[in-house]
Design brief:
heterodimer; A: alpha/beta; two-stranded antiparallel ribbon; B: alpha/beta; 5-stranded mixed β-sheet; 3-stranded antiparallel β-sheet
Chain lengths: 313, 207
């Protein structure tokens, strides 16, 4: 896991400065997340960013993983980013078309080794809130399947863009159980099946959980992140964040990873943050909610599909 | 109408409500979300110590809807429903609900159903009515039939961000259309065909 390591010395200061601005935050998140898988594992993917990381893993690093999507698709080669767990793209060349309860039953029986999820709030012990923020004032779209996945998947890799507001002393609502109160056997005592969170892959580095104390710590950073940046990250936490004694330096996104990302997200709906920068925003702003616009948008997806099908078949 | 009440369940738990309904038992047990806040705030979920192993367990109550509208790719006039692609919770719902209406993309003869009996996940005795309604999933997609209409989705999401925009959308697209075919006319069949063409590059229902 996380095997693409390097040293800072490999790069000149100019190169590091250039790299800093070369990648978008979602690209960094997906590439860092994709390196968390071991080949031949069974991987539960979410949608958007939490699917892209799994797709890059399947296409670039670990070709023998079995991808699983919640609505019932199992063992697909990943031909496009999933925009919902029921996305038809997950059905293409899948080895099994199932139903939703069966996927979760299989997970509760221990067949899912690792799952990708996102989150809005997380505490020191990896407990996650995706349901409400500001007390119970604002409803978010959780739990979805997140509550089940965090309970029963072998381990969970969270993929999120770093935001200091997402780290809290206590989550407003615990949707997804992490290591609960952090005590040694908390998950076992609760009778939860899965092993809990294993990593949080962000654009500011990868965080892991101490095997003894179950406390979150900073484990890996990108080569351009210096001591000052790490202090800046630590300031974003409401507790004294620990940093690994041997902080690992990750490789920046590779050409191959970026190739997979661009093909998967062929209409840049996840790689670009703002709707108006994306092709769909531009087509809509041009007033082309007509056949011409549909041709343009679907054509982009179809072109990427042709390329990826050539690769996977 | 009473105000909307928001209750939190996980996806597996909602699915298990239909499974319990289909089983005709009052609840199904599960191990999801033990120790989290979901069972704490949702009083319909019971946390028990199971009588066999003496460990915490969560009970999910059965749900039996009055009516289930289920979209299928192919059905015959008797009500045998065949589904390609993912099944979601469809065949559990068909058994949990008191009445079942199949919305089908294609209405076929029973002989056609006999060709692939393994795909019949909703047998005729579950079904009360069949409606032949092509493109009934729009703006979402239907496996093997048409892809999701992202263009429409994004533009309606943008419009529905304000309450006024949402009401306007309802007036125009829901109350403003007499039936589904008027909705398709308004949207434009050539766009729907384009979505079908795109899906056929991914998946196709054999003829």
């Amino acid at each position: 896991m996380g095997y693409l390591y390097t040293t800072r010395e490999k790069y000149t200061p100019e190169q590091l400065e250039g790299m800093k601005r070369k990648y978008t935050p979602p690209e960094l998140v997906c590439c860092a997340g994709s390196r968390e898988i071991i080949d031949k594992e069974v991987v539960f993917v979410g949608i958007g960013i939490s699917d892209l990381a799994g797709a890059v893993a399947k296409l670039v690093h670990t070709p023998n993983v079995i991808l699983v999507a919640e609505a019932g698709y199992i063992g697909f080669p990943s031909v496009a980013v999933l925009i919902s767990p029921a996305d038809n793209a997950a059905g293409k060349m899948a080895m099994c078309h199932q139903s939703l309860p069966e996927v979760f039953i299989d997970q509760q029986s221990g067949f899912i080794d690792v799952a990708y999820l996102g989150f809005a709030q997380m505490d020191k012990y990896g407990n996650v809130n995706v349901s409400y923020i500001t007390g119970k004032q604002l409803k978010m779209n959780g739990s979805g399947g997140g509550g089940d996945i965090a309970s029963s998947a072998g381990r969970v890799v969270y993929t999120v863009e770093f935001n200091p507001r997402q780290w809290v002393k206590k989550v407003d609502y615990m949707t997804e159980p992490g290591f609960l109160d952090g005590s040694r056997d908390a998950r076992k005592k609760a009778n939860l099946v899965g092993g809990g969170p294993s990593a949080v892959a962000t654009n500011k580095g990868v965080f892991r959980f101490d095997p003894e104390t179950h406390e979150l710590y900073l484990a890996e950073v990108f080569p351009w992140q210096d001591e000052k940046d790490i202090e800046e990250i630590r300031k974003g936490f409401p507790w004294d964040l620990k940093v690994a004694e041997e902080l690992k330096i990750m490789e920046p996104p590779t050409e191959r990873e970026l190739w997979a990302l661009r093909l998967m997200d062929s209409t840049s709906n996840y790689i670009l943050a703002s709707v108006i920068d994306r092709p769909i925003g531009k087509i809509l702003l041009a007033g082309k909610l007509n056949l011409e616009g549909y041709d343009e948008y679907l054509g982009m997806q179809e072109k990427a599909l042709r390329e990826i099908l050539e690769f996977v078949s | 109408m009473p105000p909307l009440k928001i209750v939190d369940w996980t996806n597996f738990q909602v699915a298990l409500r239909f499974v319990a309904g289909a089983f005709n038992v009052p609840f199904m047990p599960c191990r999801s979300s033990i120790g989290s806040d979901i069972p704490k705030y949702n009083k319909e979920i019971k946390e028990i110590t199971d009588p066999y192993e003496n460990k915490p367990l969560i009970l999910i109550p059965a749900y039996k809807p009055d009516v289930a509208f289920i979209s299928v790719q192919r059905a015959d006039w008797r009500g045998n429903g065949q589904i390609w692609g993912f099944k979601g919770t469809d065949y559990w719902k068909a058994r949990a609900a008191k009445y079942v209406v199949l919305l089908t993309e294609e209405l076929v003869s029973t002989e056609k159903i006999y060709e692939n009996p393994g795909l019949t996940v909703i047998p005729a005795y579950c079904t009360d009515a069949v409606v032949h309604l092509p493109f009934n999933c729009h703006p979402t997609g239907c496996f093997g039939c048409y892809t999701v209409d992202s263009m429409n989705f994004i533009s309606l999401l943008l419009q529905r961000q304000s309450r006024d925009g949402a009401l306007q959308w309802l007036d125009e697209w829901v109350f403003g259309c007499k039936n589904h075919f008027e909705y398709c006319d308004k949207l434009g069949w050539e766009k729907l065909d384009r979505l079908a063409k795109s899906e056929h590059k991914l998946n196709r229902i054999p003829g």
